[in-house]
Structures
1.
Amino acid sequence: MLGHLAVWAACFFAAAGPSLAQTATAVAVGSQYDSTHVYVSPADLDRFVTSFIATFGGTASQEIALTVTPTPSRTYWRFITSPVGTLSVFGFTTPVPYPFGSERTGYLVSDMDAALAAATAAGAEVIVTPFADPVGRDAIVQWPGGVRMQLYWHTVAPHFPPLTTIPENRIYVSPQSADAFVRAFLAFSQGRVTADDANAAGIEIGTPSATFRRIRIESAFGKMTVLVTDGHLPFPYGREIMGYEVSDLTATLAKARAAGATILTSPYTSGGRRAAMVEFPGSYIAEIHDGGA
């Protein structure tokens, strides 16, 4: 399925790598294999890819028309490898079958059955049961708080170089579900909480007069920032699904603007980093930050 197409990209960018370790509990492969899922209109697909690469660097596959869901559908697809993360970009020419489009990322796992067993044991629901595609198997799971992710497995292991910086999944959850989500994801990912700030500055979510709880997690799947809010969020906060780390925010924002992106918020400093919100062609919104925790 969606993120599973990363192995197709391996045909463009790399030869097959070593076999993947398989254990009952440790199923992550590496953050360079975790693809952000970006849904745009077919007319915006190439514009988005060009803009993203001009901003961050990287390479993209050629456009392919294919079916990536277990029910009939058709999409154009391109895969981006960049120093700050990998992306699967879809421009559907048919209606998108439910629940596709609501999953935020695809995580490559070493063993699909073990991964689903670990996810359900940790408290996730399997909302799309495994189905075959030409290169492996795919499924979608839902965590406490309604957070949806794809898991995918390759018949032949791909091999991508490590990322320069690891992107952050930005997860917005309610106070009622935050602890349940964190417990479940930590049990599944075997990750750790690197910071839990009960009074993070509200400027990070567009509410400078307030505070909120911010939890940072790291695991073999990559980084994650959990933003625990009351849902009183001004646009565009809550619409972004990923944060990208760069060495020079000012220079990166200049590149983004020149490549057709819109800078939605002025850079702010909080939590040891400078950050801004950016909208790329096709309405893909991302947080971009430098330095910090």
2.
Amino acid sequence: MPPVDRNKPKRAASSESRYSVMEFMREFPDDAACLDFLWRTRYSDDGEHAYCPAPSCRRERTFKRYATAQQRQSWSCTACGHKLHPTAGTIFHKSSTSLHLWFYGMFLMTSTRCGISAKQLERELGVTYKTAWRMMNLIRNELMEQDERPLEGDVEADETWIGGRPRAHGTKRGTDHRIEKPIVLGMVERGGRVHAEIIPFSGAGDIRPRVLEGVKAGSTLYSDSFQVYRTMAGTFDHYWVDHSAGVYVSGDVHTQTIEGFWSTLKNGIRGTYHAVSVKWLASYLNEYVYRYNTRMDETDPFLTLLARAVR
């Protein structure tokens, strides 16, 4: 066995990881390194010169960071004193939480397959539960927002219930047996991207327009035997399998890809979060869709998420 430098551990060639925790700690060892990353990425390639937007300048100037009692995260133009704030316009703006913790939280959310709970993030970062929940909510809704580009090629579509058993609620006139579980419509390219969204009811009026908008005309659509999909045969080459008859695969005709995504989503919710309210379900869908869509990228999902935060 070749000698190993314990002070500089390397990621094994056989590892599926594209960005390990040791690489993260080397690149972002503290809050100053994270702030410097934002400054160089957003404003200054060399860390010293940047464009000054002040009316008296409007040209490239030298910027320096001065220590202040308020610990401002800003660089000042040496010519006019105009300040540039690297965190302005990002999810880190006006946050008293360390950038190092923000970055590490993003790393944890992208490096796990089935997600991490806000309670676990609280323990990992040493912050309050309220802070951990706010961080995760901003990351899901601002940085993991789903791509609205239409899917194309071989696309599978299916809908599923998310949640536990239907519950009966008592009313003054008796018992109301309405099902309160949300319905999620999913569409996935075989070997590509997935899109998932909540729909109010699994009827033609709710599913048809979303599929027509979310799938490029001329694509091949695979589904189960639900009647609404059959009405779109004129727009797509449509093939379906009859699950009610016990048929799940017939050659290339199946919905196993979207079923695999449902399995990851439901097992993650059941095992990590245990339950998700209808109010926040859309943000959790964003998280699982983001991880699925970046699973095969050459760039690690954390670095992609960081690039979105900078934009």
